[in-house]
Amino acid sequence: MTEMSRYIDRSLSPMRVNSPVANGFTLIELLVALAVLGMVAAMMVATLNSAWLAMPQQKRGNDDQSVVAAQLVLRGRIERLSSAVRLDSSEPIVDTQGDSRILSFAAPPLPRLGPDALQKYRLIVTPAGDLMLYTASGLDDRIDLRDRALIGWQPNRLLRGVQDIEISYFGPDRFSAAGRWQKFWIDRPQPPALIRIRVRFGQGDNREWPDLIIRPRATVNAACRIQRSSGRCEAI
Fold first, then answer.
1. Is 189:94 a contact under the CB 8 Å cutoff?
2. What is the pLDDT along the chain (236 residues), one digit of tens a residue?
3. Counting beta carbons within 10 angstroms of the beta carbon of residue 150, is it exposed (0 to 12), middle (13 to 18) or buried (19 or more)?
4. Are 59 and 161 in contact (CB under 8 A)?
5. b/e for 18-35, b at 16 or more Cβ within 10 A?
6. What does pTM read for this prediction?
């Protein structure tokens, strides 16, 4: 065999196992690895997206719970509103006064305060946007319960970020026996049959305040009949 024949045989012989090409990745292996990495990346993006979407929903849920809690506190106090008359008037005037933005009434104390005499309550919205329910003991002679400055009253914040409040009172007006919603309840001989509280939040605030309509238990009396002329309870 000539020298040229031996050279051709060596060039056509199978590739050695320890050659650099044999130790690398094949095209199929590279494609499989890329596909696996793509699947992992897609799963991570989906997980992060779900967590991102859940964050506003969780915040919305917390905001809704704060509204529910505020309404429960108000319902619990106003339902137990007292029909006790004021002692600073010669006329029988119930100790419940209010307009479209402020409500003042007497009721049993909040549960955290324990048993006590009737408390005075005042519901307002502060200029800072806080829905506040102020309380004061009816037996504390150091507090002027008629003072609008609320000196000595205990603050109880119900909500933040409130833009406005609208309070309405249902009952007979001063000029007719028919009941209707009114913006004022001042110097009356009986509490309103219903109290409606509406709260509005600022722009961009997605919280919702369903109309809160409360009937004081003091107005529920099956053993009386409302006089058409005065609106007072007349025993049957």
1. yes
2. 555 555 445 554 554 445 454 556 687 777 878 888 888 877 777 776 666 565 555 555 556 789 999 999 999 999 999 887 776 666 778 889 999 999 999 998 876 655 566 889 999 999 999 999 999 887 777 777 777 778 889 999 999 999 999 999 999 887 777 789 999 999 888 899 999 999 999 888 989 999 999 999 887 654 455 454 554 555 54
3. middle
4. no
5. eeeeeeeeeeeeeeeeee
6. 0.65
Two tokens at 211? 């109309």
Quickly tell me which residue has 């809704």 as its tokens: 64
